[in-house]
Amino acid sequence: MPTTKPAKVTIIHPDLGIGGAERLIIDVALALQSRGHPVTVYTSHRDKSHCFEEARDGTLDVRVRGNTVFPAHVGGRFYVLMAILRQLHLTVDLLKEIGTTTTEDVEEIFIVDQVPACVPFLKSFGRGKRQRTLFYCHFPDQLLARRDEGGSLLQAVKGAYRYPFDWFEGWAISASDKVVANSRFTRGVVTGVFGKAKLGELSVVYPCVDTAAGGGGEGEKLWGGKKILLSVNRFERKKDLALAIRAYHGLGEEKRRGTRLVVAGGYDNRVQENVQYHRELDELATGLGLQTATSKTVISALSIPDSIDVLFLLSVPTAFRDTLLLQSKLLLYTPINEHFGIVPVEAMRAGVPVLASNTGGPLETIVEGETGWLRDAKVDADWTAVMDNVLYGMEQEELDRMSAAAKQRVEREFSLTAMGEKLEQEIEQMLSRERRPFHGVQQILALLALVGVVLSVAVALLLRLF
Any idea where the domains of the chain sit in the sequence? Predict the structure, then answer.
């Protein structure tokens, strides 16, 4: 039961797509809303055909702001700059809206993730003595930027371009009243990058899954009861989906008979990497002698020939993904140093054992030999061996024991209730203390000037190109 007086909660997230960060933000909103807190989600982009159900069906109050002046990118470049400018535009609209509804004594909580540009402005220009801002850190953006592309000159230019944004990221996050991370792994990385002195004591709030969802019956067996090995992740190279294909091929033709590898996940035609990587994976599989098929709808997926070894499912609907999980023998989670990784938790909720890289977040979610296995992602044979064991070596009684243990662990550590309780603890702590000091108005003015200069340079370069 809720222990905190209901606070007005405003969540700010840049793009409500169907990735792990978006799933987490939706769950944060659901967890707090279910505990009596009025929640509003602000975003600069929501495509109702490419977002989670709760973001479009009225379950949550979602408002799109900051999307009418600045594009998401310019010629496939300047994503970071545009994300900051779009969020600043959103913040202006937000401050106008809450200025007419918020009074000094209202307990108002802002929860921000991914892009911290709004945090200093909320701190400096927001109203109310009972206003607090929590920044949820998935991973430092500066560590996600690709700096090794091109020659040495291009890398130097990219480094110079990124420098002010890297500084800005730490400065903006430091304006938060509280910073939390999605795992102990991420907490260690964040502390190492920005320093404990700048951010204060970081807590860990694990992402969650709704344990009341995704637990229905299996329904009719898919593809005549084939044994399904499932990979769920975005079509991005850093997710290393190729490992699943290579390890599956390692089973050999005889042991692959009666099985199917399903590679499902987030796919957006607007994202060039998604398109290219899907093509690369298909070429890898066919080059290994595996028969492949690609489906964009459930109907086409269910009607593929029996001879298909590897099925690529692009942006699979949630309901069908849940059915896949319930009928899978094993979930393959291939990324190295994943910050948290919600998919293994979703699989354990369904009672499916997980095979994952022995790095990053999965070290905190998967218990070796009890709810799954942790293996070196650079050794394909180790992954093949686990697949072989699950498909042909383990007794059903042992698999049932792992299934029960997985469900219990999710209920205890990663449920919507567990997340709601932890978030309320963080809110209580913020409200019980004075706001963290931040004297950043002059810095904000300097930042606006800097953004103006960078934007001018970007426009000048584009004019030269065109």
Answer: 8-208+417-465, 222-414
What are 460's two structure tokens? Answer: 């000048």
Predicted local confidence at residue 98, as pLDDT? 85
Are the C-beta atoms of 342 and 23 separated by less than 8 Å?
A: yes
Tally of residues, the chain: 466
Domain 222-414: CATH architecture, name and number where available: 3-Layer(aba) Sandwich (3.40)
Write down the pLDDT at residue 35.
Answer: 94
* 239, two tokens: 């997710």
Place domain 8-208+417-465 in its CATH homologous superfamily: Glycogen Phosphorylase B; (3.40.50.2000)
Largest CA distance in the chain: 71
Task: State the pLDDT at residue 125.
Answer: 85
- In the chain, which residues have pLDDT < 70? 1-4, 100-105, 127-128, 147-150, 214-218, 439-466
Cα dihedral: 429, 435, 437, 440 (round 10): 120
CB 265 within 8 A of CB 234: yes
Q: CA-CA distances (angstroms) from residue 153 to 53, 147, 167, 197, 463?
A: 45, 11, 22, 35, 21
Quick one: pLDDT at residue 6? 87
Residue type, 107: E
- Where b means 16+ CB within 10 Å and e means fewer, 312-328 reads bbbbbeeebbbbbbbbb
Tens digits of residue pLDDT in 213-224:
755 566 789 999
Determine contact, residues 213/411, Cβ cutoff 8 Å. no
262: Cβ contacts below 8 Å, ≥ 6 apart: 228, 229, 230, 231, 310, 311, 313, 324, 328
* pLDDT tens digits along 243-298: 999 999 999 999 999 999 999 988 888 889 999 999 999 999 999 999 999 999 99
Q: Token digits for 465?
A: 């190109």
Give me the helices (H) in 250-379, please.
253-256, 272-287, 298-302, 318-327, 342-349, 362-365
